[in-house]
Design a protein that fits this description.
Helix Hairpins, Immunoglobulin-like, 5-stranded antiparallel β-sheet, inward rectifier potassium channel activity, membrane, potassium transport
Amino acid sequence: MSSSAADERIQRKMKMNKLPKKPESGTSRPAPPPPVAENVLAKRPDVLHLAGYKDGNGDGVANNAGVADAAGDDRVDPNEKLLLSPASDVSSAVIIDLHTRADGQPVTTPSIVRQSCFKKSNLMSSSMYRKTRRRALFKNGECNIVLANVSKLRRRYMQDLFTTLVDAQWRWTLLVFCASFVLSWLIFGVVWYLIAYTHADLAEENIKNTSWSPCVINMQTFMASFLFSVETQHTTGFGYRMITEECPEAVVLFCLQSIAGLMIQAFMVGIVFAKMARPKQRSQTLLFSRNAVICQRDGQLCFMFRVGDVREKSRLIGTTIRTRFIRSRVTPEGETLSPNVTHLKVSVDDFDEEMFLMWPTVVVHKIDKQSPMYGMSAAALLNERFEVTVVLEGTTESTGQTTQARTSYLASEVLWGHRFRPLVKYCKTKLSYEVDYSQFHDMCKVDTPLCSAKDLEAYLTVNESNR
C-alpha cells in the first residue's frame, strides 16, 4: 500500500472521530464530549517531551516508516518506543496522543511534529541536573558567608569605626570624609554666633558704636561666623576677622576648635590612606589556576594547582601557602560535622608550604593515607561535594606589608588525568627566563589510573609481592 493511500485513510478516520454522535431516542441531552487523557510522555529524563505539539498546518498525518523503525527493548511500552525513536524523516519526529471515546475505548492518533516547531523543555536542560555549587570561598577570595541574628550588630560596628570605614565602599568613605568637616564647621560656627549674640555684639547700637569691643571683630552675621569657623579650624587667617581678649569663652572655643580640627583631619586622612594602601590590592597581581588537576607524579597520585605573581619588581618574600579540605562528615556517634575542615599538606618542589615566587609554581598535595582524598576515585569524584580552599600569604618587598590572596576549588573544578603545561623557558636572545602567561591555565591530558590512591597502592603492593 502506498504512503499516500495510508495518509488518506487515516485522515478519513480522524474526521469521523471528530463528528458529534446523534443522541439516542428518549434522551434530550447530547452525549458528553470525550474526555482527553494525558499525553504519553517518555520516562527517560534525557528525552524531549513532544506531546502537545502539532504540525505547522495543524494536520495529523501518520508516518508508517517512523513507527515501523521504532527500536528498543521489548519491555518498553510501544507508545514509549514511538517517543524514544527518531522518525524516518530528519525534520520530523513521531508522537502519540491518546483520546478516549465515550464507550471507554482508546483511540490512537499519531501525528507528525517538525523539529522546527518544538523547543527543548526547560526541565530537560542540563542546568536542572547540574548539582548546586556550594562554595564557601569565591574564586576572587571573598567569603560566601552571611551573618544572621547577631545581637547589637550596629553597635559593634560603631565601636570599631575605623575598620568599618576602611572596609566600606569608597562612596560612603568619601561621604563621611566630607560630612565630618562640614558638620564641624557648622557646629562651631553656631557656637561662635551664640557667643557674639550673648555678648551683644550683634545689636545695632553696638555695631555702629566704634568704641565697642566685640569678641570677634567684623563678625556681624551667621555667614560671617561660619567663615570665621572655617578660618580658625584650618588656620587660614585672612586678617579681616580676628578674636579679641574681651571674651574668655571665645578664647577657650578657639583652642578647642583648633584641637578638634587637627583630630578630625588626622582621623579622616588616616582612613583614606589605609584604604588606598591596603595589602588587599596587592593580591590582584597574584594568580591561581582556573582548575586543579589530579595526576601521577613520581608514581603517586597528586592533587595540584598553579600559582603565580605577575609583578616583576616588587616580589613577595616569606611566602607561605595553606590549603584546607572542606567536606561534611558523620562521626561514629552520629554527629554531623558540616562543614568539617581538614588540613591538606602541600609542598612546592622540595619545600614544605614555603616558596619564592620567581615564576609560576605548581603546588602539590600527595594523596597518601593521611589525605582525605585517599579513597576517592575518578568515578567518585563526579558525585563528591567538597571544596579545597587555598590561602597564599607573604610580605611585599617594597612596602613591608603582609598581603593575602585566597581562592577555592570545587569538585567540579578538579580535572582527573590532566597536567599543567610548562610555561617557563630560557630565551637566548634576551639572556633571561621568559614566562608565557597566556598558557597559565592550559593543561594537557595524561595517562592516569582511574582508581583511587588506596586501590592503586594495594594493586602495586600485590604486584610487588607476586614478583
